[in-house]
Amino acid sequence: MYEHEAPPQAGSSYCPGVDCGGTGSGVYDCWDCDTAGYYCQECILQQHRHLPFHRIAEWNNNCLVQRTLKDLGHIVYFGHGDKPCPYIDDELGVQDITLLDVTGVHTVQMGWCRCAGAPTQAEQLLGRKWFPATILRPRTAITFRVLKLFHLLNHIARTNPWDFAGTMHRLTDNVSPSSVTDIYKPFKHVKRQWRVIRAWKRGGVRDPNVPRESGGLAMGCVSCPKPASVMVEKVVQARPAVQTDLGLSGAV
Ligand SMILES: [Zn+2]
Ligand SMILES: [Zn+2]
Ligand SMILES: [Zn+2]
C-alpha cells in the first residue's frame, strides 16, 4: 500500500509503456488499473481507450494530484470505432456529460456520431451500456453496472437511493463531496426506469403496448407448481384437476 503511493524512483522515471517506446516521462498512475508504475500521458490515454471511468493520479514533483482522463484529453467516440466522426465539428462539437459508474461521478467528453441517419444521442449512450437520464439531448447517464449494483444492494442491504448517491459523491471526492455534481435526482429517476424495464424483460415484454405472443421469452416462476418439475408425478395422475387448482392459487 505504501509503495503504490510512493513517488517515481529518482533516475528511473521513464514510462514502462510500449506506446511511447519507453521514452516518455512517467508521472501518471491509475488507481483502478491492476498495474504498477507511472506512465506517460500517451500511454495512459492508450491504456484507457475503452476505460473512461478510471481515476488517474499525477505526480507533480511534490505530491500525487487527482486528475481525470478528460483533463488528459480523453474523448469517447461513437459510430466509427476509435476514430472521430467526420462531422464531429458540426453543430456543437465534442460535449461533456456527467456519468455515474462504480468508481464515482465522472465528466466524460463525448464525440457523438453526427452522420445523416446516425442513432440519437440517447441510443448511442445505450449502445455503450450507459442509461441516459433524459432522452432529448442527454447530459447525464448511469452505467448498467451501477444500476445492477444498486438493485442488489437495495434488495439485500436495504440501501436507499439517497445513501447510495451520497456514497458515490464521497467515492468521487471524500474531502469535499459537496463539490461533486449532484447525481441524486437523475439517479432516482433512472433506477426506477431500470427496474420497470428489467421486469418487462423478465416477463418477455418487448413493447409494453403490444400483447405478448405465445412462446415469447419469459422467466419461469419458481414457486408455481408445474408437473414434472416441482410436482410429484403421482399427485398429478391421481388428481387431474390438481394442476388447474395449483396453477391458479400457487399457494400449495
Ligand atoms: Zn486504469
Ligand atoms: Zn509511455
Ligand atoms: Zn458519424
From TrEMBL:
<protein>
    <recommendedName>
        <fullName>CxC2-like cysteine cluster KDZ transposase-associated domain-containing protein</fullName>
    </recommendedName>
</protein>
<dbReference type="Pfam" id="PF18803">
    <property type="entry name" value="CxC2"/>
</dbReference>
<dbReference type="InterPro" id="IPR041457">
    <property type="entry name" value="CxC2_KDZ-assoc"/>
</dbReference>
<feature type="domain" description="CxC2-like cysteine cluster KDZ transposase-associated">
    <location>
        <begin position="69"/>
        <end position="175"/>
    </location>
</feature>
